[in-house]
Amino acid sequence: MTDGEGIGTGRPTGLTHWADILTIIVYFVSVMAVAIWSLCRPTRKSVRGYFLAGRDMTWWPIGMSLFASNIGSEHLLGLAGTGSVSGLAVIMFEWNAIILLLFLGWLFLPVYIVSGMYTIPEYLSKRFGGQRLRIYLSCVSLITMLFTNLSVDLYSGALFIQQAIGWDLYVGVAVLISIATFYTVLGGLSTVILTDAIQVVIMLIGALTLSVIGLIKVGGLEGLRHQYSQAIPNVTRLNPVTNATCGLPREDAWHIFRDPFNADYPSIGTMIRTIIGGLWYWCANQLIVQRTLAAKSLTHAKGGTILAGYLKFLPIAIMVFPGMISRTLYPDEVACADPDVCERVCGNRVGCSNIAYPRLVVGLLPPGLRGLLLACMCSAVVSSLTSLFNSATTIFTMDLWRKIRPKSSEVELLITGRLFVVVMVVLSILLIPLMASAEGGQVFKYATTITGYLGSPTCAMFILAMFWPRCNEKGAFWGMIVSQLVGLVRFILDFIYRSPACWERDERPDFVSKIHPYYYNLIQIVVAFLLGIVISLLTEPIPREKLSGLTFWTKNDRPKKGNMNVGVTTDDSSQSDEETASEESTETEDIKCQLKNGEITEYTIAYGSTDNTDDDDRKDMQVKVIENGTRGSISSKDWEKPSLWKHWLSEVCGIGGSDNVKRPSATEEYELRMKIIQETSFWKMFMNINAIIIMVVLIFLYGFFH
């Protein structure tokens, strides 16, 4: 493909039409306007505000952010590509997520809120005590985010930009990363959630536009059903074992439920993998849970999961159908079945299904609408990147950095979180050459596969932690570790013995070829459950009074009086409620000033007040000084406010005043959390009715496309 040309079409793909350019400008201006507006929110100047958006978010931005965090560029390309090859079965991953979203809102989230956690690893530390589970899961989560989620998002976005638009790969990705970094570093979770909302609107407008135009082109669903079955490439190969022609559409392409053992998506295995194995992603994944923790109440959090559930019905129309339409219109490219042809089309001898979506954009849309689809892809990439950056920095700051520096101040935590985003950006940029030189189909496949191998044991451990109070730290830790090692063995074998193309003989060992990865995930779950249960029963139990607010069955149990910090044994809960309140009341009186000799020190106000006092006519105020352990006093005449550039730096970075914010005592914190999970009878019934409606719609769709 020459620079600036479409995929095998010779048509120019650069943004030369005024409508395309205007659409992109409107997109960037809209996103940046929302980002800058959200930067004015005062909640970003505290740890809770930066990492949990001040817990004042309403249902609709939470629901849109849940959808945006999940639907990235890899979905637009990956689901469309899989749909072009396999048909409808892949939609089970999206539709079964609706069930898991309801599990999150109704079963898991009340416990998470009462526990007072910031991160998923922190919950494990509170639930089981000790630190090894927390540190281990933190490291695994960061590695998974970096080498699977982040790398796949970057590759998918780069593939679309390069092949559909004609932009230079590195310039395009650098622009997207820069946008994501800007408002993630400065604004925190509130900015990410609010910008996600507008990204979803842009994404849906662009994707629905392409789907409608595509369906009109092929004559609607009936026309697509007929033409898809005849979408056969001109150059094909024969399978050496069965002599079947490669590249033919699957006979069961329009069926979701397929042969439970021999299909590409076995019905039983896929159902188990998407519900039980997927429970980790939707109910115990920092990327998802963090958005619901930002809700101002449990009712708003449930409303967010309901909205996200309704939106999850759409991927079949905006991703799977476009992939099938692309194969119907361009079978020689999207469905190429000869390695030489595939290499000429997309540079990948394995297959070109991943170009189904960008090929449809290039071949079907007029120049005036390409900018809309570029904005759609930009929205998918940026929303995913910001969600990943924010979740990763929360885990690093709250779970790892606080262990390195237990007495770190709020300002230090805020600065650390922002700097870690920059580190993630640098690492993601370093991954771009790796993604560009690797085979796209293999990267996508193995990245998603390793998530299943790591996530299934974690899912089993969280089910035990949440619903079986007898489970202890030893059972949870060793059950998860051993099960993940079992998955690692299979992952290594998958990497060594790669799945053969249709025209190649399958020379893999039976252990690899005969056991579908989804059934192997089930084996992992069983191993994790058995080890977790047996080891827990053979070792000492955790007293029930230490499980207050930490399991589904004990979420309403009140902690022991005198220590209102929820948790088995945590660093934060080792002191009494009175000691905690005393420390916090002292901290709220600390202010930072600048001496005339340029030194920065901390003061505790003793007399007077700075309220409503003009800088040029300030009252003489005596202040107690604590510097290097020595107490003294100083007059307000000897200190002055920070310089203008330092003032603006603190405002832009969101660290000004974070040490002055009064924090509630542990008792007040606990009462606040209990108030958050309280629901009025009307809204509780309203949410339950919507949950029933969404399940009825899901059952109907499964029956229609069975």
TrEMBL record:
A single MF term (Gene Ontology): D-glucose:sodium symporter activity
Domain of life per record: Eukaryota
Extent of Acidic residues compositional bias: 574-588
InterPro entries (alphabetical): Na/Glc_symporter_sf, Na/solute_symporter
A Gene Ontology term for the protein's cellular component: plasma membrane
Annotated region (Disordered), positions in chain: 563-590
Gene3D superfamilies, sorted: Sodium/glucose cotransporter (1.20.1730.10)
Keyword set includes Signal: no
Family: Belongs to the sodium:solute symporter (SSF) (TC 2.A.21) family.
UniProt-recorded name of the protein: Uncharacterized protein
Taxonomic lineage: Eukaryota, Metazoa, Spiralia, Lophotrochozoa, Annelida
